[in-house]
Structure formats: C-alpha cells, structure tokens
Amino acid sequence: MPFARDMYETWYNIEKSIMKFDRIFNKVEKFEARAMTDPLNHERREQRMLDGKRTRWNKNYTFFFGNLTEEEQQYRDYFKSELEVDPEDDFIDEKFDDIHIAAMGQFDPALYDFQDYTQRLDSHEAYDDLIEEKIFKYKYRQFADDRITYERRNQRMIDKFLERAKTRDPALEQNLFSLLESDARDNSWAQLVNNPDKFRDVATEETRVFREYMVNESVQQYRDYYESDDEETGSFFEYLDNLTNRDQIRFMEIFEDPTVDQQDFKQFYMIQKREYNPELSVFSNMVLDLVDFKDRVRPLSKDISMLEASNKYQKENVEKMQAEREAF
C-alpha cells in the first residue's frame, strides 16, 4: 500500500493516544461510581480521601510531580489499598500498548510502500536519506519483527549496553540535582561580580560527556540489535564507521538508556504553611504570608522543580541497580 512515513507515525501516535484516553476514561468512571462499587468501605475511603485533600490544601503548599493532579491524587487516596496490590504506571501501560499494536499486525512496515505523497500526479518513492530510513526502521522495529525475534534482539541489545555501562565514565552517574545547584551558584551574576575566577557554565561543561556518550551509544545500540541481520551487517555497518558528525547526532533520536528509571513516579511534596497568628490583624498575617512565601516557600519550590527535572535523566550505577533488582 502506498503510504508516507509521517502519516504512519501520526497513525501510531493516534492509536497510542486512544489507548491512553480509554484508560483515563475508565479511571474516571470507576471514581465517579465509587459509592456503588464498594458500599461497605465507601465511608472510610471517602473520609481518607477528604482528609488528604484538606491536608494538602489547607495546611500546606502542595507541589505535584510526574504530571500528577489533585483529581488523580484523590483517586489514588480513595483506591489506595487496591493500588498497593496492583500499581498503575503510564510507562508500563504504554509498553503493553506497543505489544498490543504489534500483535494487530497493521503496523508492519513491510505492508507499506513509503512514498512522497506531496506529488499529486506522479507519486514516487520517498527521497529520504539513508540515515532517516534506518532511524525509522529502528524506531518501529517491534512492529517489523515477530515477537520472539524482537524480544531476543532487544534483550541482547540491553545486555550488551549494561555490560558496557559497568566501565563507563563515572561522571555520567553524578547527581544531576547537585550539578544544577552548582550551575545556579557558579553561573550567576553574583559569582561573576564577587569571584570571577570561579564563574563558569557548569551545566554545559559537565554535561558534554553525556552528549558524547549518547552519540556513541545510539550507534552501538543499532549495531547490537541488528548484528544478526544479514541485510545490516554488510555494507551499512561499514557505513556506520564513517558517519559524519551531523549523522551521528541524528542517531541520538533513537538512544535508550535502561539505567534511567523511566517509570512515572507520580508524587506530591508539601511545604507547611506559616502558622496563623491570631494576635495580629488579617492584613498583617497576609503580609507575613507573602514574605514567608518569598523568602522560604519560593526557594524550596525551585529546588523541588529542579529535583523533578533531574530525576528524569538521572543515570544509575549498573551493578547497584542489578543488585537492587535481584533483592526485589
């Protein structure tokens, strides 16, 4: 079937969005009907949910992580015991979505003749360069290979990555939150004025090793996955040895790091509000609240946001990670 690669990717994203919407819709329906599904425990669960809501909003400033919302947290508070037995995680759910889409068979790239659909009268084969073609092939490899072949190749790729990661540069596993703190201190106007010798762009300098690592590993991951594919091990593997800098950077699009925790830890963090002083007027308490927010809450909230941002990219030590998984 004549098709275009961008239409294929749009179709895939639509299917994933529909599946995600179905899950959210089912959760909302379950939450709205909570009084009827378990009437014996409803009053206790409802009270627990309302107590948590009052604590978050009346006594504290609440910051939500991982796209968590107050409505979803109420759902989690109400069904707390059920979620402890069977946790919900968007990252895991999306993995199951990909397995379902692959089983459908409709997304097998071999079914389509990818063409340039912008030509109305004389459609022709898409004039994509070789690198773009290979990146597309790798991104949708789960749909091109049968399940057994995909799992075998993918596991081989992960195993080889973890083996190499045992001897990688320790700078890759540094604490990113501390790195951002150092950047905020040393890459500031105050540092430039007071101590110009220590002024430097910490984030750019310290993360250079990350970018080089991603470029090298993305190409190597492609090699590891297709090392048993006769079509790839021939001329293209030789071509990989002579990629331009620009093409190497483009391969970063397919880089996957199993040592980065991809699960969406939906959490919230509370900062206690200043205690109301009944001996002062309402206006005085309001002024003190504003001062407290500026001097205490705002710096803490900035640290919280930096912590959330850094956790998304924090690399773990491979040996420590494997030991924790074995213990689990």
Question: What would the principal axes of the Cα set say about the shape?
Answer: globular
- The Cα radius of gyration reads 26 Å
Give the terminus-to-terminus CA distance: 47 Å
Q: What composes the largest sheet?
A: 3 strands, mixed
Strand order, biggest sheet? 1-3-4
Structure write-up:
- The protein has 328 residues and is mainly alpha-helical.
- It has a domain at 1-127 and 263-280.
- It has helices at residues 5-32, 34-37, 39-58, 70-78, 80-85, 90-104, 130-139, 141-144, 147-165, 176-186, 189-194, 202-206, 208-225, 230-233, 235-240, 245-250, 282-311, 318-327; strands at residues 2-3, 60-64, 113-116, 124-125, 268-272.
- The strands form two sheets. It has a three-stranded mixed sheet with strand order 1-3-4. The chain has a two-stranded antiparallel sheet with strand order 2-5.
- Helix 3 (39-58) packs antiparallel against helix 4.
